[in-house]
């Protein structure tokens, strides 16, 4: 389940963080198979909504702790 998300945009670029938790436990997802499945699905959505000549990327990282969202978004930009 989606817990929180934040998106920043600047000069035609976008960065976002998604905090997705396991619906049953309420904890961060650590199952590698499920994380891979989520990465594939998110990639499919992003690929369908970008211009063919524009570069884009997706990084997925498991954070067992809450990250400082503004600092992370600043790093991504």
Question: How would you describe what is shown here?
Answer:
The chain contains two helices and two strands. The chain is globular, with a radius of gyration of 13 Å. It has one domain. By secondary structure, the chain is an alpha+beta fold. A two-stranded antiparallel ribbon has the order 1-2. The longest helix is centred in the middle third of the chain and has 17 residues.
Using brief descriptors, characterize the structure shown.
32% helix; 2 helices; single chain; two-stranded antiparallel ribbon; alpha+beta
Number of strands: 2
- The tally of structural domains comes to 1
The proportion of residues forming helix, as a percent range, comes to: 25-40%
N-to-C series of helices and strands: EEHH
Strand order of the largest sheet: 1-2
Distance between the termini: 26 Å
Show unreliable segments.
none
Quick overview:
With about 80 residues, the protein is α+β, with helices and mostly antiparallel strands. The chain is built from two helices and two strands. The chain has helices at about 30-50, 70-75; strands spanning about 1-10, 15-20.
List the helices and strands and how they pair.
Elements: E1 2-10, E2 13-20, H1 32-48, H2 69-76
């Amino acid at each position: 389940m989606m817990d929180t998300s934040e998106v920043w945009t600047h000069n035609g670029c976008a960065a976002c963080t998604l905090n997705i938790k396991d619906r049953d436990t309420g904890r961060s997802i650590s199952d590698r198979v499920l994380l891979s499945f989520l990465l594939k699905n998110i990639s499919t959505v992003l690929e369908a909504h970008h211009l063919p000549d524009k570069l884009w990327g997706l990084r997925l990282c498991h954070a067992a702790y809450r990250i400082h969202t503004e600092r992370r978004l600043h790093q991504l930009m």
